[in-house]
């Protein structure tokens, strides 16, 4: 299975993508470089010795925030008798630091010219993604005796990269250089600091610069160790489960992102390289996946989303009162309103999911104070569902962008342009309503009724919400059911015509609870049937549909996050065997990705491929893919809060062996859960 030869390290929304030599040579369309707050601060970072590029012997992926490269001059034929070796050790933590070590293995002294070419195009991440680098400001370079300052200014908007070194260097407009003399068996070292600075268009300083260099790496290492120590311990007879769990924990640590307004508290950024920022839907769903393991992420996510909740009508940002944001960006194009993500509200599902997370978080944590603190924001979200989201006037949540230039056309999780279609492959008009969002709205009302009755002191509102939820459930089961296929339509068009294709979204309906019990068995059969289930996981779109494509972004690929919620939904309706089948497929797939599940992978049948086929542009790590193994663990063990205690009802796949999850945190303190998979009788017979 092919692997990208780029090396990635990250710390929240600061990340480096480079070649396997450590060099960076970005083009306007490549997501390589040093990025932070949606800006590329280094687009060139190329090391030479005596004018010669270096070749990679190997690299060590030390931690998510650091890597080490072992290099030699010359081509591969010279490796065996190389007289020099060069080690580049780099760490990212707010900014960037590189340690250079050169060792002379020769019997005679050497004189070296060591040079680093350095430059920045200060590209906005959106410009890189859209392959359009159109800078309207001024790029400048300032050479100082002890540092090199690369900068970009456009009015009050300013970004700077400041490069300095522990060893005396000669700085020029294209980089810096050292003259080095090494005796036999002698080594030379230099530390290079790259500080990123940012000022917003209002003149506000967005970054305090690099952390204290001497303590930065140790602080990150200690923080990671503490993060792992605080999480439950997972032991498994089948090694893939424990190793995948640990990989997920580390990737979650890497993706933690401290919003500028929260004083260091973190929430999960969505994914590297394109989505290293706050997303409403992605952050909420990741928190739901990880609640039994890292509950602290949920509190931060709920608070920041509440603080940025829509308060007015703004067509450019698709904002309404009560609406939860879709995406927040800090780069140049957002600052100058060339795109609307400052923040942008074009998500139709984040608002009901906000209420779902608040209730689920309280059920686990017993954090009544947060439920009371966010009462008004929750009521505003419910008003949005009723007053602003029903664009057609028939009691469903619809979407149609008001920003027709730069807003999102599809505002559900399957947000690519062709993800919603009729069975003949044609696309419906707008507004559109997708099925899973109606399920989220139903779940939000049921959960909000509990919050209103138990914590907000408003039993009348609770009764009203329960009536509305029951009516929605009845309407939905009437209007969305595809009789001849015995499943729910993916969407409705504004005339009520069904987009009558079979999709993975039906699993989200089970998770929400909107499905009438007598119909659940049909959905379960579809979800593990050959049209949807590949053997590795559930496809986004069923084989045989007009737009089915096993590597189509939302039209046939397998998304691990999607599968985790499908499995949770199957458990909700009592289909433990089917849930275990899906969990087994996804966890098997994870082993082929070294425990790090990508955003999506191909929907080819398992009997056709010995390994899951990579999707070429999938984000990795990605938050809700990272969260998927954790939710699958919860689902297999049947972990559910129940009347202040943790209920455990395990159902593991055949041959899984024993799993232990120790020190599960919650309102009950910390408890342990154990499960053992059933024996594979066929294997025993063989």
TrEMBL record:
Domain Mannosylglycerate hydrolase MGH1-like glycoside hydrolase: 320-591
Signal peptide: none
Database matches in InterPro entries: 6-hairpin_glycosidase_sf, 6hp_glycosidase-like_sf, GDE_N_bis, MGH1-like_GH
Residues in Putative glycogen debranching enzyme N-terminal domain copies: 10-192
A Pfam family assignment: MGH1-like_GH
Protein name: Glycogen debranching N-terminal domain-containing protein
Species the sequence originates in: Micromonospora parva
């Amino acid at each position: 299975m092919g692997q990208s030869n780029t090396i990635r390290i990250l710390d929240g929304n600061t990340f480096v993508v480079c070649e396997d030599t450590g060099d960076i040579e970005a083009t306007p369309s490549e997501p390589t470089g040093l990025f932070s707050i949606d800006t590329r601060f280094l687009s060139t970072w190329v090391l030479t010795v005596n004018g010669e590029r270096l070749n990679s012997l190997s690299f060590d992926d030390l931690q998510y925030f650091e890597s080490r490269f072992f290099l030699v001059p010359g081509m591969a034929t010279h490796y065996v008798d190389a007289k020099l070796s060069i080690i580049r050790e780099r760490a990212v933590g707010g900014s960037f630091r590189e340690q250079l070590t050169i060792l002379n293995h020769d019997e005679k002294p050497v004189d070296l010219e060591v040079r680093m070419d350095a430059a920045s195009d200060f590209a906005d991440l959106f410009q890189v993604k859209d392959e359009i680098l159109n800078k309207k400001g001024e790029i400048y370079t300032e050479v100082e005796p002890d540092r090199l300052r690369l900068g970009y200014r456009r009015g009050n908007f300013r970004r700077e990269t400041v490069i300095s070194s522990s060893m005396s260097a000669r700085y020029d407009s294209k980089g810096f250089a050292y003259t080095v003399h090494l005796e036999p068996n002698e080594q030379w070292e230099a530390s290079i600091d790259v500080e990123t600075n940012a000022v917003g268009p209002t003149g506000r300083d967005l970054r305090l610069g690099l952390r204290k260099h001497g303590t930065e790496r140790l602080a990150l290492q200690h923080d990671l160790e503490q993060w792992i120590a605080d999480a439950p311990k997972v032991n498994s007879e089948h090694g893939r489960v424990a190793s995948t769990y640990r990989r997920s924990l580390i990737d979650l640590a890497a993706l933690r992102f401290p919003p500028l307004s929260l004083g260091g508290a973190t929430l999960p950024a969505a994914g590297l390289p394109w989505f290293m920022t706050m997303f409403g839907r992605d952050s909420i769903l990741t928190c739901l996946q990880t609640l039994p393991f890292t509950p602290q992420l949920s509190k931060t996510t709920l608070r920041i989303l509440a603080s940025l909740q829509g308060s007015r009508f703004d067509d450019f940002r698709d904002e309404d009162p009560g609406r939860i944001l879709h995406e927040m960006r800090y780069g140049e194009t957002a600052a100058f309103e060339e795109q609307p993500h400052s923040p942008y509200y074009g998500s139709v599902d984040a608002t009901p999911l906000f209420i779902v997370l608040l209730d689920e978080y309280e059920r686990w944590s017993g954090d009544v104070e947060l439920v009371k603190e966010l009462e008004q924001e929750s009521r505003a979200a419910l008003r949005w569902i009723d007053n602003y989201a029903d664009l057609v006037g028939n009691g469903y949540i619809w979407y149609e962008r008001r920003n027709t230039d730069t807003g999102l056309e599809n505002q559900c999780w399957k947000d690519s342009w062709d993800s919603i279609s009729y069975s003949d492959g044609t696309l419906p008009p707008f507004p559109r309503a997708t099925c899973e969002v109606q399920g989220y709205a139903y779940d939000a009302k049921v959960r909000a009724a509990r919050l209103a009755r138990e914590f907000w002191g408003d039993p009348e509102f609770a009764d009203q919400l329960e009536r509305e939820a029951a009516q929605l459930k009845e309407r939905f089961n009437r209007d969305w059911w595809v009789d001849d296929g015995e499943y729910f339509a993916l969407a409705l068009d504004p005339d009520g015509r069904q987009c009558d294709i079979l999709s993975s979204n039906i699993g989200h309906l089970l998770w929400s609870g909107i499905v009438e019990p007598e119909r659940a068995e049909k959905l379960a059969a579809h979800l593990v049937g050959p049209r949807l289930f590949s053997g590795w996981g559930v496809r986004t779109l069923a084989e045989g549909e007009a737009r089915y494509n096993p590597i189509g972004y939302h039209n046939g690929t397998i998304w691990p996050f999607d599968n985790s919620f499908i499995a949770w939904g199957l458990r909700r309706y009592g289909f433990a065997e089917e849930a275990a089948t899906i969990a087994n497929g996804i966890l098997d797939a994870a082993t082929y990705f070294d425990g790090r599940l990508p955003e999506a992978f191909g929907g080819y049948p398992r009997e056709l491929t010995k390994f899951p086929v990579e999707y070429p542009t999938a984000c990795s790590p990605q938050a809700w893919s990272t969260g998927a193994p954790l939710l699958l663990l919860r689902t297999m063990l049947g972990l559910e809060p129940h009347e202040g205690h943790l209920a455990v009802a395990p159902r593991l796949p055949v041959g899984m062996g024993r799993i232990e999850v120790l020190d599960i945190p919650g309102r009950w303190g910390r408890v342990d859960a154990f499960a053992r998979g059933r024996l594979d009788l066929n294997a025993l017979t063989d």
